[in-house]
Amino acid sequence: MTTTTAPVRTGVRNAAVARVVALVAIVAGALLVIAGGVTWGMVSAKLADENITVAEDAFAFGGQQVTNPWTAYAQADIIAHHALDSTGGKTYAELDREDPLREVAMNGSFLRASLFTSVVAFGIAALVMGLGVLFALLGWAVLVLDRRTAAVAAAPAGREPQLA
């Protein structure tokens, strides 16, 4: 004795799983976009609180407040130039231990590292937001495909289903 209820139940179960996975992906995507945006805003606000202004002789953004990855990178770059100018083109490791310019090189290096850390934080925030958008789009695509699959399965034999 053969019945057709098992495939229908499996199909219903698969459709339910697809909908749950799609909704989880959409919610996770929204949370990732929000988390990335909050992180970006927080890093930007903390940089603004430091009142750092890009040096006028920087390659770009001279005179602007450091509040985003581009201004942070520009300021880090000009700090490197200023430190190397002050030390005669030598880095911290190249200077003698007793050289008083070693402290200038060290401070420049620390400042650059701090600014580069903010650049990395902005990059991670952007990555998280991008992944959130990707998750949400994939969840939406699964929902659309699930609806189309259900429409095809529900269509009477020989009739074309209405796919909106």
Can you tell me about this structure?
This is Aromatic ring-opening dioxygenase LigA. It comes from Cellulomonas marina. Keywords: Membrane, Transmembrane, Transmembrane helix. The chain crosses the membrane at residues 20-43, 115-143. Helix 1 (5-49) packs antiparallel against helix 3 and helix 2 packs antiparallel against helix 3. This protein has one domain. It has helices spanning 5-49, 69-86, 101-154. The protein is mainly α and 164 residues long. The model has no long low-confidence stretch (mean pLDDT 90). The longest helix has 54 residues, at 101-154. It is built from three helices and no strands. Helix content is 71%, strand content 0%. It starts with a helix and ends in a 10-residue tail after the last helix.
Number of helices: 3
Q: Please, how many domains?
A: 1
Give the % helix: over 70%
**Would you tell me the overall average pLDDT?**
90
Keywords: Membrane, Transmembrane, Transmembrane helix
Protein name: Aromatic ring-opening dioxygenase LigA
